[in-house]
Amino acid sequence: MGKCHHIPLSILGRYLLLTFITLPDPCSEEMERGNHSEVAEFILSGLTDHLELQVPLFVMFLLIYGITLVGNGGMILLITIDPRLHTPMYFFLRNLSFCDLCFSSIIFPKMLMNFLAEKKSISYTACAVQMSLFLAFADVGCLLLAVMAYDRYVAICNPLLYTVTMSSRLCKQLVAGVYAVGLVDSMINTCFTFQLSFCSSNVINHFFCDIPPLLALSCSDTRINEIVMFAFTCCITVSSFVTVLLSYVYIISTILQIRSAEGQRKAFSTCTFHLTAVVLLFGAIIFVYLRPTSSYSKDIDKVASLFYMLLIPMLNPLIYSLRNTEVKDALRRAMSKLLNNS
């Protein structure tokens, strides 16, 4: 009689676990059949179909991404290590730099990979995650600009009440509220978008997963999705833009009362840089998201997206420090300290 070989319990346990994991889920299969959705991955069309442009575009956007990382990372580090910059204005600016850093890192790595990849695919789950994070940080960026404009309004128009009004507690609450709104918008729009069926094609006419191209791709009725997207865009983007404009109207009217011509020139130059960034950002976002899906144009939307997703995060550190003597002085102190220590 042969010997009986016993299977170790650890191996048996792993086998049963793997068997259980790989068993088809009847509920998920039923839902998939009900949704008529068989898409496991999407293909991103990218910026261009011309193969000869892929490497030059890769180099260009790699450079932009590098500048974005260095600029925003440097701004965060500088504000953190310099006690003189521990004020509400720079607290919000540090959060904006962090937002721009995350915002770019959600899009750039996959975009750069696709320039060199033969198959520009992204999994269904990765697409949902990318869109969710993108929406959250896009909202955070818009709302932070509104908060920063309000902070400047209080500082210039009500300087005696500034310390009391913009307390440390209020600043933290405002930033927490901004992130909360971004997460809520992101979750709702992502859930609504990925409940749709994608049964005709899986090619997204964009360089990342965004709502308009996914709605254009879907074979479901997208009217509710368009209403939800329009409502959130109006509530967040338009309200933020109006807040910024009203704040600057009051700021400019106060600046005009300054008797010193030099003081007016400095204040107006700072406002000009800030308003340029605001107009570019909000103009592009409103253009992309407040149009009906039927008028979606892949080429125009790609160009508009490049402004608020890739160029603005790169330019923001320059915009907010170019005419800012406090940031320049802090940078000089940091460089001097670094050179002395070395």
Automatic annotation (TrEMBL):
Query: A Gene Ontology molecular-function term?
Result: olfactory receptor activity
Membrane topology according to the record:
Multi-pass membrane protein
Read off the Pfam families from this record.
7tm_4
Q: Which residues form the G-protein coupled receptors family 1 profile domain?
A: 71-320
Is Transmembrane among the key words of this record? yes
The subcellular location is: Cell membrane; Membrane
Identify the keywords attached in UniProt to this record, alphabetized: Cell membrane, G-protein coupled receptor, Membrane, Olfaction, Receptor, Sensory transduction, Transducer, Transmembrane, Transmembrane helix
Its GO CC terms are: plasma membrane
Transmembrane intervals: 57-79, 91-108, 128-150, 170-188, 227-251, 272-291, 303-322
Instruction: Fetch the PANTHER family from UniProt.
Output: OLFACTORY RECEPTOR
Purpose of the protein = Odorant receptor.
Record-stated family: Belongs to the G-protein coupled receptor 1 family.
Question: What is the protein name given in its UniProt record?
Answer: Olfactory receptor
Q: Which organism is it from?
A: Chelydra serpentina
